Amino acid sequence: MNDLFFHNWQQKSKEHQKKYAQWLKRAPKNAVLKILPTLHEEAFANINCLACGNCCKGYSPRFKTPDIKRISKVLGLRESVFIDQYLSLDADGDYVAKSAPCPFLGNDNTCSIYEDRPSDCARFPYTNEDVLLKRPQITLKNSEFCPAVFYVLEKAMEKLG
After folding, report:
1. Which of 21, 56, 109, 151 has its CA 20 to 30 A from that of 44?
2. First-last CA distance in the chain
3. Is 138:146 a contact under the CB 8 Å cutoff?
4. Taken in order 19, 126, 97, 147, is the CA torsion positive or negative?
């Protein structure tokens, strides 16, 4: 990580929440979408997810039906057993991991089901797609625990005002 830029990034992100929220409301959509792929690549050139793992340590993706079917098959479990063992329903009626950290997260921050992980995990942190703008509440929440979201927001605001 670029030590100077990322120094105290979580505190900076917390302090910038109001600024991020305002920017996400008025951001020029087409211009943002045009620069997201580059900013996403830059972010991950500077961030080692295996050194962080915050997303897997404190939050759960939604496990959609195709995810449940695929993962239970890979684990050699009936879907109902997989659900009973690993998942619970959240307030929105979505299946999420029963426990935090994620039961598939190893001590070295690797994922034991990485190749078959839920689609939410594969897409996270949504810094290269329109979710960044379409779901500002998720973007704001993610910016507090994911340095890539912090990076993309800061750089997008810097480039586009």
Report:
1. 21
2. 24
3. no
4. negative
Q: What is the pTM of this model?
A: 0.91
Distance separating alpha carbons of residues 63 and 151, to the nearest angstrom: 27
Task: Calculate helix-pair angle for 147-160, 17-26, nearest 10 degrees.
Answer: 60
What rounded mean pLDDT belongs to the chain?
95
Q: Which tokens sit at 155?
A: 């750089």
**Residue ranges of the domains in the chain?**
12-50+125-160, 62-123
Distances (CA, A) of 157 to 10, 33, 73, 96, 118: 17, 13, 43, 32, 30
Q: Are strands 95-97 and 87-89 parallel, antiparallel or unpaired?
A: antiparallel
The pLDDT-based confidence of 76 (bands split at 50, 70, 90) is very high
Q: How many CB atoms lie within 10 A of CB 134?
A: 12
* Cα Rg of the chain (Å, integer): 17
